[in-house]
């Protein structure tokens, strides 16, 4: 029997978070120990309620279709539900309610009041401890270096865990998988920043860059930035064709009487996500958090190399915390590019020297580096230091097949 990877899921659900959690519930490779719900896509209380809504939907589905129980091997076990942070380490609270809605799921219960939480669910153990306390206790009591901590939201709770129990985590955590940041591509919440890192850049600075006391063990940390997650999409016409033939948008809400409880639940939040994405000119949802969950499934701790089809390399960057326009931006020193000046030099000083020598500037000035958007292209900078960043997966089609078959039981 293949051993399961015990996981702690730090999340701010959120549309793509919920799909990622459904994938976790449907993945026999994992053992879900705890959810830590925080601010982010919505407020912390709505995030917590969305875990209940998800478990309630799966419970109702299995009551109606008990033969599907084997499809959700992680649903029967009890899981700790802990409260995470309500805001960043410093500064104002920012949310992604512009995409996910006030409740995180596109106002799902306004259109579908039957999907609001009705009953206490026996699978969820409500903890009075903080998220960092729950995570520390699990890391302390489980076998060393077996747990994967999956960060799908802002890194505030991970930063608090490292501040309070840094030595414990560095000694005993198996792996940390994080979705966040944008290196060589535009941001999604601003022109330069990905939302999770924008929501708490102070936490990112503490755990990945600056403070030795709160630094995560980088030899066991994997980052999945927008560079690799954005090309993985869930086309809504595909969902309509393969999963819910009646699926449209929130202007034509899902009818629970005509489909299974699980499909009704997912259609009821995807229908509003479709409205938002169509406004951006795309009839598909990007699978950011789902790619991170997939990475955790396929790359358990204790294995030195990534699974077949996965590639990553170390990238060195810093993060802007206070910029009026650049909050959350990952700053990469591109002076080591072949088209740039000599590595590490001050460009202003070099330019002044060139001017003194009356050189024409054009052949010496750095050229703009275009954003890398294709998964098969490798990053332009690499280092033995820095953070391990995934730049290749087995491919968007492979994830789409896995997601469709596991969550909805549809073979493609």
UniProtKB/TrEMBL annotation:
InterPro entries: Inosine/uridine_hydrolase_dom, IUNH, Ribo_hydro-like. Keywords: Glycosidase, Hydrolase. One of its GO terms (molecular function) is purine nucleosidase activity. The keyword Hydrolase applies. Residues 7-342 form the Inosine/uridine-preferring nucleoside hydrolase domain. SUPFAM superfamilies: Nucleoside hydrolase. GO terms for cellular component: cytosol. It comes from the Eukaryota. The keyword Hydrolase applies. Transmembrane segments: none annotated. Gene3D superfamilies: Ribonucleoside hydrolase-like (3.90.245.10). One of its GO terms (biological process) is purine nucleoside catabolic process. Belongs to the IUNH family. This is Nucleoside hydrolase.
